[in-house]
Write a structure and sequence with these properties.
The protein is mainly alpha-helical. Helices cover 62% and strands 0% of the residues. About 2% of the residues have low confidence.
Length: 232
Amino acid sequence: MEYARKQITHLTPEWDSSKRKNEADFLVKKILNLPRPGIQSNARLSQGYSAPLFAAVLAEFVYRHLTNQTISTQLIRKALIAQSIVNNTPCGNFAEGNEVSLKSAIRKVYRTLSKWAPQRTELMKRKERLLLARKESLEDMSKLLISKDILPKNFAIPENVLAAIDEYSEYPLVGRAMLSYHQEVLYQMAQEHSKVSRREIYNITEGMGGVEKFANHAQAVQQILQYRSGGN
């Protein structure tokens, strides 16, 4: 509990002490005391993990919940590994040599969400469905471009690009606006293989709802694609 409190303080320097006590500390206590069948508290949730590692995981979930940020196991794992590498939080370099335990702790806390954040959990489930549908529509568009020899036969959208898209909050989840982002992503990636024009991309993708003008997303997409070379 003490590690988690210090970690949350580190993550929320702009919060006053009463906000931390009334919201963050309260939620940490609630999570650790969730009733389970035959057990009086949920304190055993942290058993098997080092105190700094579990506190870092718990603090990240609480912080994201209270600040209405996306909660996903993938994003939280990435954020925690980055925190551990920088090693400037009260929990220190908690993930070094402990990646298996880190994944396990994240999954364990994630499974409790329906008990301490039921409304948020339902929203998350809906958003996760939309994220999956967005990924599938992008892949469908890429397959269409492959069939037209705009992209090579062995083309696949890199996982780090898909992760960067998920992290980019301005990337729409649905509709023609989403498809216009897809078009720009694939247009820029296609430049490595052919000198296709945006007009050609539009002509090919129009049938699946593609829009005629999507160059206005060029700068945003450039930032997303920097992840392929390790840029931030």
